Amino acid sequence: MILTQCASCAAELPRLARQCSRCKTRYCGPACQKQHWEGGGHDKRCKKIRKGGGAEQYHADQKYAEATTVAAEACADDTKGQTCYICTEAVHRHTKEGLVRGCACHTTEGFVHVSCLAEQAKILVAEGEENNLDMEPRWAQWHTFGLCEQDYHGVVFCALGWACWKTYVGRPEEDRARGLAMSALGNGLFDADHHEAALSVYNSRLSLMRRLGTSKFSMLVLQGNLASTYYAMGYHEKAFLVRQDLYSAHLKLFGEEDINTLGEVVNYTASLVCLKRYEEAKSLMRKMMPVARRVLGESHEFTLKMRWQYAEVLYKNASATLDDLREAVATLNELTRTARRVLGSSHPVAMVITSGLRDARAALRAREAPPN
Predict the structure, then answer these.
(1) pLDDT of 137 higher than 70
(2) What is the end-to-end Cα distance of the chain in Å, rounded?
């Protein structure tokens, strides 16, 4: 269950919480259930929630509608005058939603409705399940745009996360697609900076995985998501300890040239930088950047992130030399051009590299300025 709080008092719920026998809305006890029915308006909504598929489905449908509206509004300037590449309409004829653009496409093919993307992903996954096909590329449609092969981000990713969850929430707990949908929702919430909500979803997923059993890799992925959320919420020491263990586990399980390990290097380095452990971060980057460039190529997102982190270490370190600062500026200049070309100027990675370039230039100017 994603609804982890009492509908009346918002207290955290145990797994086997009391629930409305009709619509499955959950409560921490009979007193809250009675209060919600008599004074909280549940007597008027219960039938509507039951007809909507029960509390969890009803909640997912509502949150999806809200998230889709937010995403369309956020993309309004970019999508003005455009049409959906799937249904060819500007405003969806059934849902009345506007267009979004949450990928790296540089053409009109990047304009689309969230509901069109969701329907496309739903069909592909259903075909895969029915015909016992490889599910990985089909499931990727829930988070990656097939035409430009870049992940969605921000509020668009969040809307797709809710779309994914509302599609599979009605399945049994042990169903694989339902579990993946829970992770997709957590990732979408995290990417839209809804970190407390993401943490709640990840913890629910962790509880489910421990109860049902799962692969070591799946558990590593989830632990990584939790570490990222701790970091985003300011729990930096806690995030670092998890990242340290995850990096060691990835090296042992996959080796240093595996893409999963290289992704974890990026995350581990971020924790080192946050704690100002610059020399450790620099040493790790010098070791792993050549590996990423050889295995993934110069334009891969992980390669770009590693090189940006290396430059960040150079200009943020209080003991940086003038040559260090110049190297950081030169590196970020090159990365800015590459990231904008490959990912698009509005992509989060391109934006953070551009911001880093401004900071590095400021640090260099301050060092080059003659003393008063």
Answers:
(1) yes
(2) 63
pLDDT band at 295 (very low <50, low <70, confident <90, very high): very high
C-alpha triplet 50, 51, 53: angle, nearest 5°: 70
Last residue of a domain, one of 160, 179, 213: 213
Q: How many CB atoms lie within 10 A of CB 17?
A: 21
The range of the structural domain enclosing residue 19 comes to 1-51
Shared domain for 67 and 37, answered yes or no, is no
Enclosing H/E stretch for 73: helix 55-74
Torsion angle of C-alpha atoms 343, 221, 269, 348, degrees rounded to 10? 20
* DSSP designation for 5: B
Start-end of H helices in 213-258: 216-232, 236-254
User: What is the token pair recorded at 55?
Assistant: 């509390």
Q: What is the pLDDT of residues 138-166, one digit of tens each?
A: 898 998 877 677 788 899 999 999 999 99
As to burial, measured by CB atoms within 10 angstroms (0-12 exposed, 13-18 middle, 19+ buried), residue 47 is exposed
Domain boundary among 166, 195, 213: 213
Q: Tell me how far apart the 2 most distant CA atoms of the chain are, in Å.
A: 77
pLDDT digits (tens, 9 = 90+) for 105-118: 555 567 889 999 99
Q: In angstroms, what CA-CA distances link 266 with 28, 307, 358?
A: 41, 10, 21
Q: What phi and psi values does residue 28 have, to the nearest 5 degrees?
A: -80, -10
pLDDT tens per residue across span 318-372: 889 999 999 999 999 999 999 999 888 888 889 999 999 999 999 999 988 776 6
For residue 151, what are the contacts with CB-CB under 8 A and spacing of at least 6? 103, 143, 144, 145, 157
